[in-house]
Amino acid sequence: MTEPTDTYAAILGATARIEWKALEPHFARGQVLWAAMDLDLVEVAQALISDDSATVKSWMDQSKVALLTDEQAQDWSERDPENLWAVVVRPWVLVQERG
After folding, report:
1. Do the beta carbons of residue 93 and residue 34 sit within 8 Å?
2. pLDDT tens profile 80-96
3. b vs e for 18-54, b when ≥16 Cβ sit within 10 Å of the residue's Cβ?
4. What gap in Å lies between CA 32 and CA 19, rounded to an integer?
5. Angle between helix 20-28 and helix 70-79 axes, rounded to 10 deg
6. Is 89 exposed, middle or buried (0-12, 13-18, 19+ CB in 10 A)?
7. Domain ranges of the chain
8. pTM here?
9. Strand, coil or helix: what is 10?
């Protein structure tokens, strides 16, 4: 196993659980990106920060990273999941529901 980079460690330290209510204003502004459960949220954030467009595009093409849809927002609003994790990668709030 390789040692995490300083950037990875910093992003990990800025990642936290979040309630849907705190995300709603960001969703309303179109600033919430969703990451699939099988991705490492910190790696996705790191790819966004480092402008690794090839990797981000690949995830988007596979529907593993995308803008949060109205349907997802409605689902989260109704369920209020306890396992939402987020990290801010301006201008985005990157969110993942963990299993």
Report:
1. no
2. 999 999 999 999 999 99
3. eebeebeebbeeebbbbbeeeeebbebbbbbeeeeee
4. 13
5. 160
6. middle
7. 6-97
8. 0.91
9. helix
Neighbours of 76 (CB within 10 A): 22
Q: How far apart are alpha carbons 56 and 71 in whole angstroms?
A: 22
Map residue 31 onto helix, strand or coil.
coil
Instruction: Pull the structure tokens for residue 29.
Output: 């502004």
pLDDT tens, residue by residue, 37-83: 999 999 999 999 999 999 999 999 999 999 999 999 999 999 999 99
**Separation CA 56–CA 60 (nearest Å):** 6
